[in-house]
Write a structure and sequence with these properties.
12 strands, six-stranded parallel beta sheet
């Protein structure tokens, strides 16, 4: 049966194929993948089906994905514009730093739209307010004429989302097939769709207030995952499961999440017992040996992970301001700064360069976005000084 619903998805990587496109496929959408990586696009154009294997405690479940096409936006931008101009939904899983590069083509397509129903735009990134960030780039005068902004909401609506699903490293010969954990959470803000029906996507939880879900996930799943990765890397452990099997690392991760839980329960009025159960569930998930998640993969991009609104500095800064204990988070921040010159990770190389070329205060301002006005500033400066070692 030919689908009458169409979604254009930017990013043909594992999250795109294994999570977002899987849910769109199950929901009855034809999916048009957009990417600039020739090898991925060529595979998606020539291979007419792939399989998503969910891994959980109860075994494996395989879903066959079909009814998709693929376009290389580097060589066929006009085709992408034409597809978006008649689509119901645009999603992306490209990484927060790439949003500014996909915005111009989306803006051009929105300008062409004549549908009565606005295009739904949902960024599926590990970042707070990623769809707002994308919308900002789309509405920038370089991409959308200012005189068109007044009725822009008639052509597009932007909804932030929180996604949570672990995609481990894949087999070298997997092709388009993706292994993924069975647990998932995809929460989307429904308030931008007032006056219109939000798109139907299987498994999505639509909420009026997204921030508690985003921060709970970022400051629990991502904090715990990255802390395990950085401590595991420092101990020369191979996988996250092996890291968390080490009692010392396991206890440190639990202590990090005890600290972030104080922020989550006080700021968002989450019941402490509910948050405690959520933490236990998360630690069990990331400890799953069947996911075979390598610490270097989870720890990659340390500059982003050590930035102001991210998984360590974000909660630690808020807790420091209210006088709460942050010892475990400071330890994880130190391990993050020690994640340097890791093969295949450009940010870890750049981090090493920054640490070598600048004094500790400049590093903290540059990497963490903290200033001397922040209570967290001095403790992190001391960590950086420790990582840099004694001056010659």
């Amino acid at each position: 049966m030919v689908s009458h619903k169409k979604a254009v998805h930017f990013g043909g990587g594992n999250i795109g194929r294994g999570f977002v496109a899987e849910k769109l496929h199950i929901s009855g959408y034809e999916v048009v993948f957009v990417d600039v990586v020739d090898s991925i696009i060529e595979k998606l154009q020539t291979i007419k089906e792939y399989h998503v294997t969910e891994i959980g405690g109860e075994g494996e479940k395989v879903t066959k994905i079909t009814n998709y096409r693929a376009i290389n936006s580097k060589t066929h931008e006009q085709d992408v514009i034409d597809e978006i101009s008649t689509a119901d939904l645009v999603t992306c899983a490209v990484g927060p730093n790439i949003l500014k590069f996909i915005a111009p083509v989306i803006a051009k397509a929105i300008e062409k739209r004549t549908h009565k129903t606005p295009l739904a735009v949902i960024a599926c990134e590990n970042a707070i307010g990623a769809t707002d960030t994308l919308a900002g780039f789309i509405k920038d005068p370089k991409n959308t004429p200012e005189h068109r902004l007044a009725d822009h909401h008639d052509r597009a609506r932007y909804a932030n989302s929180a996604i949570d699903r672990i995609v481990p490293g894949q087999d070298p010969d997997a092709g388009l097939n993706v292994k993924i954990e069975s647990f998932f959470e995809w929460v989307v803000d429904k308030t931008p769709f007032h006056g219109h029906t939000h798109p139907h996507i299987e498994g999505v939880k639509w909420v009026e207030n997204l921030e508690p879900f985003i921060e709970r996930k970022l400051f629990t799943v991502n904090t715990g995952h990255a802390a395990a990765a950085y401590y595991g890397h420092n101990k020369h452990v191979r996988t996250i499961a092996e890291a968390l099997a080490d009692k010392e690392i396991h206890d440190i991760v639990q202590n990090c999440l005890l600290e972030t839980s104080k922020l989550i329960t006080s700021k968002h009025k989450v019941h402490p017992q509910e948050q405690k159960e959520y933490v236990l569930k998360i630690v069990k998930r990331i400890s799953n040996p069947h996911l075979e998640d390598v610490v270097e993969r989870v720890g990659r991009a340390p500059l982003r992970k050590l930035s102001r609104k991210e998984r360590f500095i974000g909660p630690a800064a808020a807790l420091a301001e209210s006088g709460e204990s942050i010892d475990a988070l400071l330890g994880a921040i130190e391990m993050g700064f020690r994640f340097q010159n890791v093969e295949g990770d450009e940010e870890s190389v750049e981090l090493a360069k920054i640490l070598k070329e600048h004094d500790a205060k400049t590093v903290v301002e540059k990497v963490c976005g903290l200033t001397e006005k922040d209570k967290l500033f001095e403790p992190v400066v001391k960590i950086v000084e420790k990582v840099q070692g004694p001056k010659a």
